[in-house]
From TrEMBL:
It comes from Rhizophagus irregularis. This is Uncharacterized protein.
Amino acid sequence: MSDIYEVLEVIKEKHWKEKHMENKEEYQRDPSCLKCYNTDEIKIDEWFEGFWKVFQKVILEAMSYNRNTYAKLLEYIVLTRKSGKERYPSSKKKRDKEFEKIMKEGEKLLDVVIISIGYSNKPDFKREGIKSVIKIICEHYMFDEEDNLIINQRRTEENLLGNKELIKWGNIITDNELDIRFS
């Protein structure tokens, strides 16, 4: 995020000026705008509140989220989780192709999540590092019997804050990414 923070600040300022001050019909879009994407019209579920608490303990500069953050994160979690009824393709080639497709879609969703968050100042982590943090948190989500998302916050925090790879390098390469790169 530190790699694109300045660009996002310019977008935010331009959006505010064009949309909210000058009321232009054509204006710069800003996915992090709290006025355009407020959460007043939606119910923020407990799973997201848990996510946000853990996320803020790692990304200290994260100060606000909006409807985009919530919706795209939920889309990402649903996209990357298979229900017990779904079958994985038996062919490794098909599995890898399906996984790559899901990864690409997931990366796009995570990009929107990252830029929809308001930061108090330039984060210590770059964009890929913030993606790693979000992925680790999302790995700990489970669905209960009624399809509600639940998370063990304490265990997730311990896994994140004690992750030597994340602390040293600022991001993590997942096992699935390693499999694709080296198989």
